[in-house]
């Protein structure tokens, strides 16, 4: 049988397309504040909705008066965010920070941009720092998902970009993605972020979003890996799907810039991976994290044979500096694997 394979694709994306693509991913196209469902056991989640709404209202205030309907829906008073141009959503993975960030983007009027930390660094690499500043300084909002602190060079690059943009009047909203050895109980310590960006600390108001990973609240574990024959049968029966050997795909990803991972899986209905096993080293593991994020963005289901998705990263990796990234990838891939369990 002949199967479509990701490794046979040759995705390309131009700098202009990178800028035009700076919108919330397909999974969050319909995200709005009123579609965010706060965990009733975590009051900070409803408070975060009000705070993000207040931030959007302030951005829009120059052209229209802000509405107050969210106060009626969620009750309580919105936090006084002052006049800071930055808003930082601080919390563990799976508490809905991306949903809130996308909702904020949708609620903001005018020209705006949205991207993950990696996508922002890719944009600077493609356009150059000065050109990126020139283009984005015309926007009212820059939303940055998954702000990372594991690469000092990239971190300082983006914080310098934020400084230039906020000085130009752009508002910036960001969510966290930090080194896990700086976390307490798996959640982000805001002070670490603020120290890392030095003078940027005065530009951000911090909003906490607490709670367990919503993707697994009351849901079953990921389905177990299937036999090779069954994987091939289901790949053939699923229109628009792909089937790849895990090792071959890992080798292919090493030759493809991470900025193209999204384009790589565009239009794919489901991804099937044969012979999955623990990543052999950290470079491979981080590429798999990037791929998992792009699959999750596009809500592309995943089936595997070999090892379970929970075994994608070694115990040593899960105890190391990129622990939070790996846990987020497992969480997202597990959620994606459930999407095909009824097939």
UniProtKB/TrEMBL annotation:
- One Pfam family recorded for the sequence: AFG1_ATPase
Q: Which domain of life is it from?
A: Bacteria
Q: MF terms per GO, please?
A: ATP binding; ATP hydrolysis activity
* Assigned GO CC terms: cytoplasm
InterPro entries under this entry?
Answer: ATPase_AFG1-like, P-loop_NTPase
Example GO biological process: cell division
Report keywords, A-Z.
ATP-binding, Cell cycle, Cell division, Nucleotide-binding
Task: Write the protein's name.
Answer: Cell division protein ZapE
